[in-house]
Amino acid sequence: MSDTKKPPQEVSEPELKVLRAIRDFTAKNGVAPSYENIAEATGRGKSTIRHTIDRLIRKGLLERTKWYFRGLALTPEGFVAAANGRKNRTK
């Protein structure tokens, strides 16, 4: 098993909205949002949110935390993307 990093990827506008919704809800409430909370904040359906979350996890911008109710957390790269609108790039 190799420990290579994935190349930086652009973050789409819907992905950015989901990242920011998770970041903002967690900061305000101290717990991660439900899919329904994210859907309400972004104006998208819960099924679309689920697929978007799966993409963000594959991109390394979001992670599921085990053994925790509503276990979603932004990775450090996810916080950068939410703040800047794209994944942090190395030059």
Topology:
Elements: H1 13-29, H2 35-42, H3 46-58, E1 62-64, E2 72-74, H4 76-84
Antiparallel strand pairs: 1-2
Strand content: 5-15%
Derived from helix and strand composition plus strand pairing, the structural class reads mainly alpha
- Count up the helices: 4
- Rg calc: 13 Å
Main pleated-sheet profile: 2 strands, antiparallel
CATH class: Mainly Alpha
Supply the number of structural domains. Answer: 1
Describe the protein in words:
This protein is mainly α and 91 residues long. The protein has a single domain (13-84), classed as Winged helix-like DNA-binding domain superfamily/Winged helix DNA-binding domain (Arc Repressor Mutant, subunit A). The chain has helices at 13-29, 35-42, 46-58, 76-84, and strands at residues 62-64, 72-74. Strands 1-2 form a two-stranded antiparallel sheet. The radius of gyration is 13 Å and the shape is globular. Mean pLDDT is 85; it is low at 87-91.
Question: Tags for this entry?
Answer:
mainly alpha; Arc Repressor Mutant, subunit A; two-stranded antiparallel ribbon; 52% helix; 7% strand
